Amino acid sequence: MTLEIACDESGSEGEKLIGGQTDVFAHAGVRLSAEEAAGCLKELRRRIRSPAVEYKANHLLRTKHRRVLEWFLGPLGPVHGRAQVYLVDKKLLLANELRALVGRAVPPDDEVLAAFNDVLRTRNRRDPAAGSFFAMAGDTAELRAKVAESRDAKILDPLVPAILRAVEHWSAGGERVYLVHDEQPSLKGERLARIEASPGLAGLEFVDSRTDPRVQVADFLVGVARRIAEDELNGNGDAVLTGLLAPYVDSASLWR
């Protein structure tokens, strides 16, 4: 048996994990037929009543649509029990990578993490960011070698691990998974080959989210999930929404 899972992401900024536009990366997969997804979108339009041509997650996140958001995520909503969300606290991911390299716990200092992020992202070994980072972290030949290895491996972008986790999650029952994913221009070459080599994957198709109602539903879910998670991370969490999101959050998420 093959499961078709529609996916989308929110908060993807490549390897830039600190100092960007978002603090959280989120990836969502939903198991809905095209007819069910179209019905979900129709019901959201009926409840939200916006004249907008294209509905996005920010419509659900408006205060006046709070009851619609609670319905969407709640036990009587269209995606309950049929979706998975993988969350990544970007700063925590970066701190974990730095800790693994230096072999000790690292204070969550934004300046150190930003310098580390810059030195991993650059392909110029003489970039000033390198000198700044090594001055703070300790300039040893061993550390330089480890940083160079990590830089070459491009380990930071959470998108590929998130997709691989989606395949693992949905294929856990023995079914192979066919992913229908929103277009991702960054997924090519070795990155795409890594995904296509996943043993649970039956196939992967990239589509324009505007043409597939299932991906549109995934877009709604991942957008509200990222915002709820970011609010929680930054001390502005909403206990009700965080509780409603909890059943969707994948156990492998890099999250609290």
What does this structure look like?
- This protein has two domains: 178 residues, Nucleotidyltransferase, domain 5, CATH 3.30.420; 63 residues.
- The longest helix has 21 residues.
- It is built from eleven helices and five strands.
- It has a five-stranded mixed β-sheet.
- The protein starts with a strand and ends in an 11-residue tail after the last helix.
- It is an alpha/beta fold and 256 residues long.
- This is DUF3800 domain-containing protein.
- It holds the Pfam family DUF3800.
- InterPro entries: DUF3800 (IPR024524).
Can you give me a brief rundown of this structure?
This is DUF3800 domain-containing protein. The chain is of the alpha/beta class.
- CATH topology title of the largest domain: Nucleotidyltransferase, domain 5
Question: Radius of gyration, rounded?
Answer: 20 Å
End-to-end separation in angstroms reads: 34 Å
Uncertain runs are none
- What's the rounded overall pLDDT mean? 90
The sequence of SSEs as H and E is EEHHHEHHHHHEHEHH
Total domain units: 2
Largest sheet, in brief, is: 5 strands, mixed
| Side-by-side strand order of the widest sheet | 3-2-1-4-5
Pfam families: DUF3800
Protein name: DUF3800 domain-containing protein
